[in-house]
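Problem statement: downstream parser choked on a complex file, so we are re-checking the raw output for the adenosine-5'-diphosphate run. The parser issue turned out to be on our end (a line-ending mismatch), but while we're here, posting the original submission so the record is complete.
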Amino acid sequence: MKSKIDVVKTLLDALPFIKKFSNEKIVVKYGGAAQTSAELKEQFAQDIVLLHLVGMKPIIVHGGGKSITTLLADLGVDTTFVDGQRVTTKEVMRIVEMVLSGEINKEIVSLLDNHGTKAIGISGKDGGFLKGMPKDFDNFGYTGLIEDIDPEIVDNIIEDGAVPVIAPIAGSNIIGHPGFNINADLAASRIAVALNARKVLFLTDTPGVLNKEMKLITNLSIEQTEALKDDGTIQGGMVPKVDACIEALRGGVKKAHIIDGRVEHSLLLEILTSSGVGTCIEL
Ligand SMILES: Nc1ncnc2c1ncn2[C@@H]1O[C@H](COP(=O)(O)OP(=O)(O)O)[C@@H](O)[C@H]1O
Ligand SMILES: CC(=O)N[C@@H](CCC(=O)OP(=O)(O)O)C(=O)O
């Protein structure tokens, strides 16, 4: 058991990190793969509440790919992925919006609320936050890219002392358009850049970026990351994730981390300790 002085030391160890990141915006991409158990979800909420209470400005962008795939299967609707991105028919788009905006977004908001932090859930359709455009309509349908961001609604939520919780769906300027399904990793990086975030963290279901021997790579430059994509070491869902890290870094975010959302309190370990966890990508 820890002695009382050990407890104090743990708190003091966190002090430089609290000073460094206090008042800074930190975008946390909470992937569907890291939302697997009720216990992990609770711990994630506690981590966000603590970061918020010590003065940081966490912004959550969530995924939910696994839940979307499960509901589509339950409904007997086929779904396919190309390079880690879902092909989104009009029918799939309805389910994507139900799961992301209707279910997961509100679940995260309630969790944060239950732990004592005011949270406001929106999708990119709210307040004209994200405007999308087709990635490649013929091959991907309503899967989109972000064309434009108006950060005002999120800045207002932060100013109001709440944590923004964002579902990665973009609106359209065309009347009656169903909107766009945006890969949550790519949404997180664009949002991090537009909001001048200091850091972006991606919580997922692997220890970080793994090499061909399945060992964790703790630090990567952009060039090294591109090389791992080119030689096929990085595949599937990790492709949009590292693309998102690179986009965030090129847009001025100082560090991008890919960390294991299955590890207890991985967010606090990464942000408030010197040991860090997962893969850190920087310029
Ligand atoms: N080099 C790699 N290192 C780690 N994971 C990889 C790598 N290449 C492919 N992957 C895959 O990427 C997955 C993470 O992406 P994804 O399933 O989309 O997660 P999330 O729902 O968190 O966005 C991992 O579970 C793993 O199967
Ligand atoms: C275009 C595209 O692929 N959109 C994703 C959106 C959710 C997501 O990105 O969820 P994860 O972060 O849990 O993978 C999808 O439909 O699954």
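For whoever reads this later: Residues 31-34, 63, 65, 84, 185, 204-206, 209-210, 233-238 surround adenosine-5'-diphosphate (ligand 1) (CB under 6 Å).
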